[in-house]
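Please review this one.

:::
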Amino acid sequence: MTETEGILDALDPEQREIAESLRGPVSVLAGAGTGKTRAITHRIAHGVRSGVYDPQRVLAVTFTRKAAGELQGRLRGLGAEGVRAQTFHGAALAQLSHFWPQLVGGLAPKVLPGKVATVSQAVEGMGLRLGSEALRDVAAEIEWRKVSMLSLDAYADAIDARAIPVGLTGEQLVDVQHRYTELLEERRQIDFEDVIVLVTGMLETEPRAAVQVRERYRFFTVDEYQDVSPLQHALLRAWLGDRDDVCVVGDASQTIYSFTGASSSYLLRFGVEFPQARQIRLERNYRSREPIVRVANRLMRDRPGALHLRATREEPGAKPQFEWFATEQEEAAGVAESIAAAISAGTPASDIAVLYRTNSQSARFEEQLRRLGIAVRVHGAQRFFDRADVRQAVMLIRGESKVADDRPLFQIVSDALRVLGWTAQAPEGAAERDKWEALSALLSLVDEMPTGTGIAQFADELTARQKAQHEPTLDAVTLSAVHAAKGLEWALVHLVGMTEGLLPIAHAQTEEDIAEERRLAYVAFTRARDALRVSGVAGGARTPREPSRFLSESGIIA
């Protein structure tokens, strides 16, 4: 058996077909839990090992730094060293920094870390006052306009169809964006969308830049293609030029970022854009038990682009449960008690999640879980490697790597963590417990390293993870908005607040808006491997609520 055959033998027939389709345009329609990341990483590794791909000329693109870091790690594990995995913004920023001195002169403009402060200054300069939420809404409108590739004049013509932030008229919203643009120009600054705008423009108008990029990158893979925006699509086309060695992967049923300019049309019309494209469907679901797959399929039945998942797990499972509570406090307490029982029965806390539509729902669940002594991790809060105690621990471990030490890796790392107060037993206090969980997560990475790994190699691994924000698994229940949970999975998922007005959200009024909310519910359902428990709250006499329509559409309730 050859080395490349060993890689292919690990794949199912459809995944293997993807891995063997190394040239030309390829479209992969991959349902939830069907092993799409496995398929595309094995495809790239097969291309490298077979000599079809020069690893230095392969670019794998995804949408978050964390996903890019995980992709890079998997490729390293498959022997595809040298392949770059980056976000659209990361790749564009590197190219902008490279080409700006050559084509324009001097250093590239400074990239704003965020828009809100500059938006606030633009608003104040016009003699207006807006609250923090309205300022964020204006920043989101600027982002939507730019990723949709609309000029300010074109945006002004379409303003009647947009939701105007509270405190502004449509005309004022356009004026604020004009002033925001002027402030950036005066300060020689750009925002994140401008990075892609500028690079795309350079590649389309400067032959020197286009030749260099197309010589550097020959083979492209784009994950989560259902979330690509018009601006990102334009950048991809500029990278490709007249070539077609591109593989795109996505699932129209998981398009949940339309409000940011994402569109599944590029995925669904890939065969029109590239008539010679090969289309391969992944519908074998390896994640969820059959009852969960069944309700997910029923929810999306006959929807545009929907795939029909086929459960492959043979063990039986319970039908997703629904519970209706009188108050929000009762819901939080009931969910916390259910989670405590699951942990007592042997489910690790790290394999349990509470998912909700809006971040404002998280506090009461966090309170009730902590009341029961259950560790909690709020997904999307402070990044793991940004914690002060974690940064300090990484520095200590890197210091240890400079000294020759023949002791076992676990002992070296645990001794370094003891300097920061880590102990073998978990402390009682909540704050101390959070720190202990974080340091223990670092120590758990030792078990993931190959036998014989030394402290220097381990320090390098931590540095790579820190740079890519590739976080270890914490022994804590995850609380997360559904939007932030896409791409993740847990043995037990509690989907809370399943009422009309929350999911679907109250401001979803059009059929298009409701369709997006339905896809959000589908994403939530398919995060669960073994058990899905859904709950909602009846509300008071003044604000009675009804169960979400998606519960009857999916068959969770009759």
